[in-house]
Design a protein that fits this description.
The chain is an alpha/beta fold. 32% of the residues lie in helices and 24% in strands. The protein has helices at 31-46, 62-65, 74-84, 132-145, 162-174, and strands at 3-5, 16-19, 23-24, 50-53, 88-98, 104-113, 119-128. Strands 1, 2, 3, 4, 5, 6 and 7 form a 7-stranded mixed β-sheet that branches.
Length: 184
């Protein structure tokens, strides 16, 4: 999967991150909401940093949440740090979604350090359930993380359910984050 992790290890110095709403660049209204919920849960479970969803009551310029892959100015970074009281922001966009004939999702995420504007982590990938390698990873994900119980579809549910597929995507994204290095 295509991702970037700052080689200096700066991500482990981040304590509090605010997740801005995902931009939806698809023809499917609200598809980003379920994916955002799954991303928050799986990223929080990694415990690399404290992740909070941007409060809707914040008097933030609407352009911050619709940034997609646009770079922020130093002024915007300072304004975000003041508004959210955090070290970094997580921003992104769902660039594609396909429910039929097979599930597909394109996602772009980036973690930007508000203390200096450095890119700490990013994911830019498209998942296609029609791809055999993706299907093997889905099966491994369900074996490892999901209790399918008596479900006759087992892992194949992710091939027909957007919610199950988004759970898989979120898990793959979270797995690109480093483990939190214990303090000495």
């Amino acid at each position: 999967m295509a991702h970037y992790l700052d080689p200096s290890g700066g991500i482990v110095t981040v304590n509090r991150v605010v997740f801005l709403p995902l931009v939806n660049n698809t023809d499917y209204p609200d598809i980003e909401k379920g994916l955002a919920d799954d991303l928050v849960q799986t990223i929080q479970a990694r415990q690399v940093f404290r992740l909070e969803v941007a409060p809707s009551s914040t008097e933030a310029p609407s352009t911050w949440g619709r940034a997609g892959n646009r770079a922020f100015s130093l002024k915007e970074l300072a304004e975000m740090r003041r508004a959210f009281g955090c070290d970094a922001v997580l921003i992104g966009a769902v660039n594609s979604f396909q429910p039929y004939p097979h599930m597909g999702t394109g996602l772009y995420l980036r973690l930007v350090d508000l203390r200096g504007g450095q890119l700490l982590w990013a994911v830019d990938h498209t998942w296609d359930s029609g791809n055999r390698q993706t299907q093997r990873r889905i099966e491994a994900f369900f074996d490892r993380c999901q209790d399918t119980g008596d479900n006759p579809l087992e892992w194949r549910v992710a091939l027909v359910s957007s919610r199950a597929f988004q759970g898989f995507v979120a898990q793959e994204v979270a797995e690109t984050l480093p483990d939190r290095t214990p303090a000495r």
